[in-house]
Design a protein that fits this description.
- By secondary structure, the protein is of the alpha/beta class.
- Helices cover 31% and strands 26% of the residues.
- The chain has 8 helices and 10 strands.
- The radius of gyration is 17 Å and the shape is globular.
- The strands form 2 sheets. Strands 6-7-8-3-9-10 form a 6-stranded mixed β-sheet. It has a 4-stranded antiparallel β-sheet with strand order 2-1-4-5, covered by helices on one side.
- The chain has a domain at 6-78 and 143-228: P-loop containing nucleotide triphosphate hydrolases (Rossmann fold).
Amino acid sequence: MSAVTVRIDSLARRLGGRDVLRGLSLEVEPGEWLAVLGPSGAGKTTLLRAIAGLEPPDSGRVLLDGRDAASMPPRERGIGFVFQDLALWPYLSVAEHLEESTRAIGPLLERFGLRGLEPKRPHELSGGERQRLALARAFASSPRLLLLDEPFSSLDPLLRRGLADTLADLHRERGTTTIYVSHYFEAPVVRASRVALLRDGRIEQMGPLSELRSNPRNDWVAAFVADEAGIGT
C-alpha cells in the first residue's frame, strides 16, 4: 500500500459541552512524519480519532488522497492506530493479535522483539512487551497511515528511545505517512519533519522544530518550546 495524503478542512468537534476542535485545518504529505504536540485537553486524541473515523466531526472534513473519509468505513482507510491505552484484547495471544491482519508474523516478531512470546496474553507481558505488541499489530496490516497516540507515555526513557529507533527505521523503510501525538518533546518528535503545536483545539504554529524554536509565532509558542528545550535531543 502506498502512503496517503491527509487533508483536514475546518474540523470541529464539541464534546461534553466543550469545543475540543475549533475549525482545525492541516495537510500531511505522503510519507511525512508529523508530530502533534500540546497540553492535556488540547484536542490531540480527538483529532486522531476523527481521522480514523472513530469520532465523527460536527463540521469539517477529513480527506484521504482527496477522498472524503466520511464515505469510507474505518477498515477501508488503511490506518494503523496505536492507542494511548494500547487497546489490546485480553483473550488473544501475541500471535493471534498479529494474525488478525497477516499470516506472515515472523518478521514482525523479530523486529519488535516478540519472538518466543507468541502464546502469551497481554496480562503475561511486561509494559514494554505490551507496547511492542501494540506497535507490531499496527504495522501488521501494512497501513497507508499510522496514527500514534502518546504510545510511549508509560515507559521509562531507555525503552522509549529503543522503540523510537525502531519506529524511525520502519518509517525510513516503508515511508508510511505518520502522525505522532505527544504532550512533550521526545525522540520521535525531534525526528519529525514538521511539528504542529495544538492549543484549545487550534493549531498555534506548525513547521520544522528548528523554526518553532527560532521564530515562535506568539508568546505561548515561545513558552511551550522553551519549557521543552533540549528534551529528546
